[in-house]
Specification:
By secondary structure, the protein is α/β, with parallel strands linked by helices. It has helices spanning 18-29, 51-61, 79-82, 88-97, 114-117, 131-140, 160-167, 206-212, 259-275, 289-292, 308-324, 341-351; strands spanning 7-10, 34-36, 43-47, 70-72, 102-107, 122-126, 144-145, 173-176, 187-190, 197-200, 222-225, 228-231, 252-255, 280-284, 298-301, 329-333, 356-357. The protein has an 8-stranded mixed sheet with strand order 2-3-7-4-6-5-9-10, with helices on both faces. The chain has a 5-stranded parallel sheet with strand order 15-14-16-13-17, sandwiched between helices. Strands 1-8 form a two-stranded parallel ribbon. The structure holds threonylcarbamoyladenylate (TXA) and magnesium ion (MG). Residues 38, 40-41, 43, 67-70, 101, 103, 105, 117, 120, 122-124, 128, 146-148, 185-186, 188, 199-200, 238-241 line the site of threonylcarbamoyladenylate. Residues 147-148, 156 line the site of magnesium ion.
Length: 358
Amino acid sequence: MKPIHTEVIKVNPMYPEPTKIEHAAKLLRSGEVVVFPTETVYGLGADAFQPVALERIFSVKGRPYSDPLIVHIADEHELEQLTTTIPSKAKQLAEAFWPGPLTIIVPCNPRVPHLVTAGLDTVAIRMPRHPVALALIRAAGSPLAAPSANRFMHVSPTTAQHVLADLGGRVPLILDAGPCEVGVESTVLDLCSAIPTILRPGGVSLEALHTVLPEVQPPPQRHLENKEAHLDTTAQASPGQMLTHYAPTIPLLLFDGSIETMRDTMLTEVKRRVRQGERVGVLVADEDIPTFQDSGAVIRSLGKADIPEQVAAALFAGLRALEAAEVQIILCRNFDEHGLGLAIRDRLLKAAGGKVFR
Ligand code: TXA
Ligand code: MG
C-alpha cells in the first residue's frame, strides 16, 4: 500500500461538531474508510453497501476475507436492509441493550455484500452508543461495516494514538474523541443457533443478557489441561475467534489460581527472568503493586481487580504500553469471570496464545 496522509481530527465526544462529522461522512459516501470512536474500541468504518469501500477495510487491516464484519446502525429501521426476518429475541435484546456493546447474529438479507458476511447466510449487527459513532452513521446515510481499527492480529485500539500507531499512513481520517469507555469489544451473540449462544464475550455481560433471555449460553468452553488451555476448535462458530487473534506483538504468560498462588508463581518467574537479564513487564491490579515493586520488572496496573469495568477499560492500553516500553515478555495475572471479567479472561487467554499457568 502506498502511504497516504492521515488526518487526525479531535471531536467533542458528547456533542460532535456537525462540520467535522460531515467531513468524515463525505469521505464515507465517496467510498473511503474512516476511523471513528465507539464506546468499546475504535472502529475502521466503511459504507456497508459499497463493495469497493469494504475491500479497503481488508487491505488497510491486512485482514483475511474469511473474517466477517459487524454492521453498525443508528436506528432500528436500518435492520430491514440487513436482515430478512427480525427474530422476536432480537427485538427484546435491542430494547434492553441498544444503543450499546451488543452485536447480534441474525439471518442476512441477500442484498448485503459478501465482503461483509464472508459468504455466510447470517450478518452481525450492532447499534453503538457513542454519540460520535451515531452521528457519523446518520450523516453517512448508510449502515457502516467496521472491524476494530488495528492491524490484523494486534490488540484493538482504545485511543486515537493506538490507531495511529497501527494504521497511520493507511487511512485518510481518524476521528479522535479520547479513550473508549468500555475498552473491550462488543459481546457477539448468535441468534441463529437453536439456543442463543455467546460467540465472543464483551461489553454486555452474560448476567445482563440473562435478565432478558435466561436461556443464553456462555461461549464454548476452553478446556484446561496440563497448565494449558486449548480452544475446542470444533466449537469455533465465529470465524475471527482463533486463539491468537488478540495477540500483542510480544509473548504474554498468563497466571491463574488463588491470589496468593498467582502472585507467588508470577514473582518467582519474574525474578528468574530478571536475573537472566530479560526485560520483563508485569500486568497486574493496584493491590498487587507492592508484591512486584522491587522485582525489577516494568509494572503496569489495570486498576482494582474487583472492578472489572476499570480493568476492561485499561486492558488494551496496558498491553500496548508494555509493548511500547520494549519489554521482551509480559507476565499477567488473571481476573474473576463475573460481569466484564468473562471478556477480560477471554482477551487475556487469546493474548497468551491459549496457555495458562496455575
Ligand atoms: O466492539 C466491537 O464489536 C468493535 C467495534 C468497532 O464495534 N468491532 C469489532 O469488530 O470488534 P471485529 O471485526 O474486530 O470483530 C467482529 C467479530 C469477529 O470475531 C467476527 O468473526 C464476528 O464478529 N462475526 C462477524 N460476523 C459474524 C457472523 N455472521 N457470524 C459469526 N461471527 C461473526
Ligand atoms: Mg478485531
